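Key result, reporting period 2: structure in, sequence out.
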């Protein structure tokens, strides 16, 4: 269902995110700066992260929405970037085992229908010693903030784009990767987590 919603949103998705860009874009830049070697971005969306990638990475990008991929391709062309784009889901990545040095996920796991399967797939396609970089919005450390802000927001986003702000993505990351870095922003609503495949 999320695919149809994102396909319908298309260009309007960028407009919806404008109020958040001033807070999230610096974090996107920081996350993407950690990419090395052959890199996959899962859930690339409209390609907001593309301009931040180091120029020496071999970049692959996948998203479940054909419309989002069209916009991201146009953005890559405008930036003069070579990116291999794919339409598909993180729960079933069309890549061989041990293929990537880095996998980037930027505000993706809030919409993944089966997040555990998504983590399994990211781990599968990473080389041993490869790094998975997650920038995700998750449930806050503050129960009060969860109650007065995230729960009402969760209902709205769930209806509009099958998005959940209340997931415990960090706990799931710890099950699949050795966590090397965790940074919390905005009372834990957003986390930057770097995990390594042992």
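The corresponding designed sequence is given below.
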């Amino acid at each position: 269902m999320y695919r149809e919603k994102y396909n319908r949103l298309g260009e309007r998705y960028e407009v919806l995110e404008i109020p958040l860009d001033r807070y999230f874009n610096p974090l996107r830049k920081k996350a993407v700066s950690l990419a090395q070697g052959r890199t996959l971005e899962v859930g690339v969306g409209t390609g907001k992260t593309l301009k931040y990638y180091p120029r020496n990475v071999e970049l692959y990008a996948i998203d479940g929405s054909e419309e989002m991929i069209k916009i991201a391709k146009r953005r890559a062309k405008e930036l003069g970037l070579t990116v291999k784009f794919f339409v598909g889901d993180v729960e079933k990545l069309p890549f061989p085992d041990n293929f990537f040095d880095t996998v980037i996920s930027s505000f993706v796991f809030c919409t993944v229908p089966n997040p555990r399967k998504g983590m399994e797939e990211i781990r599968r396609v990473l080389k041993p010693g490869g790094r998975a970089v997650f920038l995700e919005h998750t449930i806050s450390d503050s129960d009060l903030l969860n109650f007065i802000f995230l729960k009402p927001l969760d209902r709205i986003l769930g209806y509009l784009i099958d998005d959940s702000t209340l997931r415990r993505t960090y706990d799931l990351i710890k099950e699949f990767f050795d966590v090397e870095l965790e940074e919390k922003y905005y009372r834990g609503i957003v986390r930057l987590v770097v995990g390594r495949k042992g």
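Confidence is low (pLDDT under 50) at residues 156-163. The radius of gyration is 16 Å. This case is discussed further under Risks and Mitigation.
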